[in-house]
Specification:
Layout (H helix, E strand, L loop, with lengths): L1 E11 L2 E10 L2 E5 L6 H9 L6 E6 L2 E2 L10 E5 L10 H6 L10 H13 L15 H14 L4 E5 L7 H18 L2 E5 L3 H7 L2 E6 L2 E2 L3 E2 H6 L3 H7 L2
Parallel strand pairs: 2-10, 3-8, 3-9, 6-7, 7-8
Antiparallel strand pairs: 1-2, 1-4, 4-5, 9-10, 9-11
Helix pairs in contact: 3-4
């Protein structure tokens, strides 16, 4: 699903960010200096931050005034927000119905999502019995069950070691392709951007720039990105 940010202006406590761009499906990394507005951009797309002006369109339809729950978006944060007293199955099932009163078919969906993220046999475990990577897999399974065409990840694997982080990124890439979803990934790590995204949006100096080829952008970074990367 295409995402169009039309002459968008976000203002927050002395901070401003402008965006006038189109993301045409596939996988796109959101990169740039810390504090530049990467997460704020995702929040605006998801509807949690109201723009001062401009429009947010999905597939050509205007969603600027649409509440977050009604947008075609799932947003996954670094903090996985699992309920500690609920099992893997229950935490995942929240993606279908908050009441956890599921039909037989919906229960099958939950089991399939848990298996898809590699947690088969762990449905009855509590979050405290899982590793950090496993907890993120639960959050990802719950996100899948929301069945939205746009999946946005805000540095979800930053706390993981390199090997596990790459494993999770590869899992997300596979799932994105299988579900034909549009993926936006905020990351501070250029290795992550190269691994998972063919396009990248640079957010720096108050501007979210139009998507560019990830390799080209990272190999020839503009001054703001070069200073951040130390190149």
């Amino acid at each position: 699903m295409d995402i169009k940010l039309e002459k968008l202006l976000i203002r927050q406590q002395g901070f401003s960010l402008v965006a006038d761009l189109v993301i045409t499906g596939g996988s796109t990394a959101i990169i740039g200096p810390s504090g530049g507005g990467k997460s704020t951009l995702l929040l605006a797309i998801a509807g949690f931050v109201e723009p001062a002006r401009g429009k947010v369109l999905f597939g050509g339809a205007d969603f600027t005034k649409t509440p977050p729950a009604e947008r075609p978006v799932t947003l996954l944060f670094q903090e996985h927000n699992l309920f500690p007293h609920l099992t893997v199955w229950q935490n995942t099932a929240l993606g279908v119905r908050p009441s956890l009163r599921l039909s037989s078919e919906e229960k099958e969906w939950v089991g399939a999502a848990i298996a898809e993220v590699g947690l088969h046999g762990m449905a009855e475990r509590l979050p405290s019995e899982l590793s950090g990577g496993q907890r993120q897999r639960v959050a990802l399974a719950r996100a899948l069950l929301r069945d939205k065409p746009v999946l946005m990840l805000d540095e979800p694997f930053a706390a993981l070691g390199p090997a596990l982080r790459f494993e999770m990124l590869d899992l997300v890439a596979r799932i994105r392709e299988e579900h034909d979803a549009t993926l936006l990934l905020v990351t501070h790590n250029p290795e992550d951007a190269r691994r998972i995204a063919d396009k990248a949006v640079l957010v720096a100096d108050g501007v979210a720039e139009a998507p560019r080829n990830t390799g080209t952008l990272l190999d020839n970074p503009p001054p703001a990105l070069a200073a951040y990367l130390g190149t």
